[in-house]
Write a structure and sequence with these properties.
By secondary structure, the chain is α/β, with parallel strands linked by helices. It has two domains: 191 residues, FAD/NAD(P)-binding domain (3-Layer(bba) Sandwich); 110 residues, FAD/NAD(P)-binding domain, CATH 3.50.50.60. The chain is built from seven helices and 17 strands. The strands form four sheets. Strands 1, 2, 3, 4, 5, 6 and 17 form a seven-stranded mixed beta sheet that branches. A five-stranded parallel beta sheet has the order 8-15-9-10-11, with helices on one face. Strands 12-13-14 form a three-stranded antiparallel beta sheet, with no helix packed on it. The longest helix is centred in the last third of the chain and has 32 residues. It is elongated.
């Protein structure tokens, strides 16, 4: 069985940054990644100083090279389970049948975006069906934009996205817009189109509009959807980590969970973390993990000296 100081589960910005910090601290590190990043459909990431406009896959490729340069072990596989070992630490099982031993675990498995089950939404996701205006708003500024409703947060999302476009339409879909909400939307010249949405109209590989159930098509260049965020936390909960009332794993600012030796970073910890935020969380978790390992190393050294 291969043994490591830290096994990192998830090879996105959080996991790779943590690996880099730990490797530079002379730790033995493995990163296990299933190869299904949340931002795979996106053409570019934004708001990351010095990397603005970089395709996400290029950032990950560069990060993997840096991790390998420092001696990190990259494993393209899926973790099927993990449990506390008889000796202090953890045993990590992989789909390939391989087992890893780790003194500490960092889980950076991200989240899943749950979007409305309407024709065109999933197919255009990350292209002209978007969710984060800070990530994509600048690229569609001053164009005909829409916000697809269906939950109580859609109105607030529309008020935010109005910052990027003078022509914005809220499609209420299955949600009722209250009088107070209507007043706020009207104050910002946001049009409301009521009635169920049937799907998106796409021609020549471009979004052309939003089609209502009655056949009416409202021309739009891009549509924003506020997805429901679902944490990829099954591994964490099976390890016994406490979760809050919304299903997110409880953790402190350095990612420490309720299970000793297990930390979390990135979108598995924070649904609002952008790439640069996730990288920062990975760094903070790595520094905290190394501090834990240093304390353990000192205690082991003291015990060994006393046994002489």
């Amino acid at each position: 069985m291969s043994r490591f100081d830290v096994v990192i589960i998830g090879g996105g910005a959080a996991g790779l940054t943590a690996a880099l910090v730990l490797l530079r601290a002379q730790r033995a590190v493995a990163v296990v990644d299933a190869g299904t990043p949340r931002n795979a459909p996106a053409q570019a990431m934004h708001g990351f100083l010095s990397r603005d406009g970089t395709p996400p896959r290029e950032l990950i490729a560069a990060g993997r090279q840096e991790v390998e340069h420092y001696g990190g072990v990259l494993i393209d596989d899926t973790v099927t389970g993990a449990e506390a070992a008889e000796t202090p630490g953890f045993r990590v099982r992989l789909a390939s049948g391989r087992d890893l031993a780790a003194r500490k675990l960092l889980v950076a498995t991200g989240l899943t975006d749950h979007v409305p089950d309407l024709p065109g939404i999933r197919e255009r996701w990350g292209r002209d069906v978007l969710h984060c205006p800070y990530c994509h708003g600048h690229e569609v500024r001053h164009r005909w934009l829409g916000v697809l409703g269906g939950d109580a947060d859609a109105v607030q999302h529309a008020l935010l996205i109005r910052q990027w476009s003078e022509d914005l339409t809220l499609f209420s879909h299955t949600e009722t817009v209250s009088d107070e909400q209507r007043a706020r939307l009207a104050a910002r010249d946001i049009r409301i189109v009521e009635g169920a949405v049937a799907g998106l109209v796409v021609r020549d590989d471009r979004l052309r509009g939003v089609e209502l159930a009655d056949g009416t098509v409202i021309a739009r260049d891009a549509v924003f959807v506020r997805p429901r965020f679902i944490p990829n936390s099954a591994l964490l909960t099976r390890l016994g980590c406490r979760t809050d009332e919304h299903g997110w794993v409880e953790h402190d600012p350095t990612g420490r969970t309720s299970v000793p030796g297990v930390r979390v970073a990135g979108n598995a910890a924070d649904p609002r973390a952008q790439v640069i935020t996730a990288a920062g969380q990975g760094s903070a978790a790595a520094i905290a993990l190394n501090a834990e390992l240093v304390d353990e190393d000192v205690e082991q050294a003291l015990a060994a000296r006393s046994a002489r």
